[in-house]
Write a structure and sequence with these properties.
heterodimer; A: alpha/beta; Rossmann fold; B: alpha/beta; 4-stranded antiparallel β-sheet; 11 helices; 12 strands; globular
């Protein structure tokens, strides 16, 4: 398909809890070209992480509905055998760095031994070869390879995050998913990690899905932006258009709430809180907080296509 | 300027971490190491720095939640540096703390009403009617309304923003003069953050409160405070009016901080940021001379790594602790 690495069509993932069914990912569609980065932004609990996990079928045990299509290089990941997926896609072609992954390094195993595990298990390398590969990737992310022989506690937060990023690069993936990769780091460390991700993107030409709640930070990496609200993508747009002229009222309000350092502007906020994913409203899920709502918003808005593959899920853009 | 409420002189707070078995050399973490600042009635200042720079310790020491190691704290002209527990009760009433994690700061088994009543009971409000009046008034002010919907709830039944409103309500219910707000919005979502900051600002004006706003996020300070103090490795390295710091940063550390903070802009993705190498120093054994010298792009050999720079007034009210200006 026309240079698309990833094509997600009507993806749905619900899971059941005592209180009812949580509609964490509800009919999400977007596509991603080779070498492109999409930032998924939204508030906590909007389903960003659930979406990423759904893409590589890391589902919660109590999943109740999981359907739609995830076309990766034209192959629907939902149709694949668990074994095939595990061998060929998950952690190989697609890697996922969960939030706060830097704290999940095993404290009693040397960095090198932790890094080579997937190479030995998945790619059947021998130890020596795997260690060489690990050293090479470690140097690429700006960590001296002597740290292969060190334990995680000997590394600073920023270095741990670099090791984690190195781990996700080991298998030469085509798609890397990063969930809040800098959220527990200090401002300066955050900036150097963002520099590293930019370098990887430029030199290795891989695609990334970058999940963050920080709108300003998302502009450091994003070619495309997907705004999520209550389990749905409400706007999908190019970075050029999104940061200068967001279309969905939620995106607009979100942008107003971002403090800026270099420009003077009046800050805004969104009164109220997002709806529960247990029982979201029937119509537009943002309607309750939307300053521009009108009669039609009681019905579920369709996806309205804009130029260049962008779309917005809002009645305001209905034509005619 | 109106009268001075708080004056901190050369304040130090050291924590002992280890002592040799036979009373050998004592080892200290010097979390706050000679900080001076002042605050007028009704003034708002920001303390900005990265984690571990000592900003929270400074805030808590000012509130006398920690016993200072050295230096002086004057509040309303009184020396409160070494007040005993009994006399501190008065100071507790004059000050308030807003913590970072609202849920962690609220007792889970108390209702909203009980949480707000606690400080009133401790400070001897014997009349029940008066206590209730105060509770209703303060809930109104932090806009936890309709009050009847909230007053009997437990903290876990509130959203993050509502919990933080409750923490704010508790901190102002005794009508203090000084509030230390320690990262009050960093755990909240972007859309709620501004709402809470605006609420704090309203209350600050209404009560003519003095506020010390502690944050790692320099981009929110311009909307909130009149002055900014930048902290690095237990020292204040630069202090000036907010606009002055943002438009004319002088310390190399301040410049680095400002430089790396992005505004939403699609062109960001094509440029790399200049980031000083290395990490903040260990506060047990900080570098000799200027504490930023191992990372500083403007490092002067034989000076910055030998002698600690003094605090130099470069413009009126703009202080920089850096040899570049000495």
């Amino acid at each position: 398909m026309d240079g698309n690495l990833l094509n997600i069509i009507n993806l749905v993932m619900y899971y059941r809890t005592i209180k009812g069914e949580v509609k964490a990912v509800d009919n999400v569609s977007f596509s991603l070209h080779k070498g492109e980065t999409v930032a998924i932004i939204g508030e906590s609990g909007c389903g960003k992480s659930s979406l990423a996990k759904s893409i590589i079928r890391l589902l919660p045990r109590n999943v109740s509905v999981y359907k739609g299509k995830i076309l990766f290089n034209g192959v629907n990941l939902l149709d694949l055998d668990e074994e095939v997926l595990n061998k060929e896609i998950r952690w190989t072609k697609i890697t996922y760095v969960p939030q706060a992954a830097l704290n999940s390094l095993n404290p009693v195993i040397k960095v090198g031994d932790q890094m080579i595990e997937p190479l030995i298990l998945h790619q059947k390398m021998d130890k020596k070869e795997a260690l060489e590969r690990a050293a090479k990737v470690l140097r690429l992310v700006g960590v001296n390879d002597v740290f292969l022989n060190h334990y995680p506690f000997e590394l600073s937060g920023g270095m741990k995050q670099r090791v984690i990023i190195a781990m996700s690069l080991l298998t030469n993936p085509e798609l890397m998913m990063l969930d809040e990769p800098t959220s527990s780091l200090d401002v300066l460390t955050q900036a150097s990690i963002m520099n590293l991700l930019k370098k990887i993107k430029k030199e290795m030409g891989l695609s990334m899905i970058f999940i963050t709640h920080d709108v300003a930070l998302s502009s450091e990496l994003a070619d495309k932006v997907a705004v999520m609200y209550a389990g749905q993508i409400v706007e999908f747009n190019s970075a050029e258009k999104f940061y200068s002229n967001p279309r969905h009222p939620y995106s607009q309000k979100l942008m107003e709430s971002v403090p800026t350092l270099r420009r003077d502007k009046e800050l805004g906020f969104i009164p109220g809180s997002p709806p529960s994913l247990l029982n979201p409203p029937k119509g537009c899920r943002f309607a309750e907080r939307c300053p521009l709502k009108f009669g039609k918003c009681l019905e579920d808005p369709p996806i309205i296509r804009l130029n260049g593959g962008s779309y917005v899920k809002c009645w305001l853009y209905e034509k005619g | 300027m109106s009268h001075q409420l708080l004056r901190v002189e050369n304040l130090k707070k050291y924590f002992e971490v280890k002592r040799g078995i036979f009373g050998g050399r004592r080892i200290y973490v010097k979390a706050v190491d000679g900080v001076s600042l002042s605050l007028a009635r009704g003034e708002t200042i920001s303390l900005v720095g990265e984690s571990g720079c000592g900003k929270t310790t400074l805030g808590k020491t000012i509130l006398r939640l920690y016993e200072p190691t050295d230096g002086k704290i004057l509040f309303d002209g009184k020396d409160i540096t070494h007040l005993g527990l009994k006399e501190l009760k008065w100071y507790r009433r004059e000050t308030g703390l807003i913590q970072q994690d609202p849920f962690g700061a609220l007792p889970p088994f108390m209702t909203v009403k009980r949480i707000l009543e606690e400080p009133l009971l401790i400070h001897g409000f014997k009349n029940r009617r008066e206590r209730e009046e105060r509770i209703y008034r303060v809930l109104e002010q932090v806009r936890l309304t309709p009050i009847e919907d909230f007053i009997n709830k437990y903290p876990h039944m509130l959203s993050g923003g509502q919990q933080q409103r409750l923490v704010i309500a508790r901190s102002i219910i005794l009508e203090p003069k000084l509030i230390v707000a320690d990262e009050p919005v960093s755990m909240l979502d972007a859309s709620v953050r501004v709402e809470i900051l605006k609420l704090l600002q309203d209350l600050q004006k209404r009560y003519n409160l003095s506020v010390i706003y502690i944050t790692h996020d320099i981009s929110t300070t311009r909307y909130f405070s009149e002055k900014i103090y930048i902290m690095y490795a237990a020292h204040i390295v630069e202090g000036a009016d907010t606009r002055e710091i943002l438009h004319n940063p002088m310390h190399p550390y301040t410049r680095a901080l400002l430089n790396v903070i992005p505004d939403p802009d699609p062109s960001n993705r094509f440029t790399f940021k200049e980031v000083p190498a290395g990490e903040p120093p260990n506060l047990i054994n900080p570098p000799v001379g200027c504490r930023f010298n191992p990372r500083c792009p403007n490092f002067i050999k034989g000076l910055c790594d030998v002698k600690e720079p003094p605090s130099i007034e470069v413009n009126k009210g703009h202080y920089v602790k850096c040899w570049l200006y000495g």
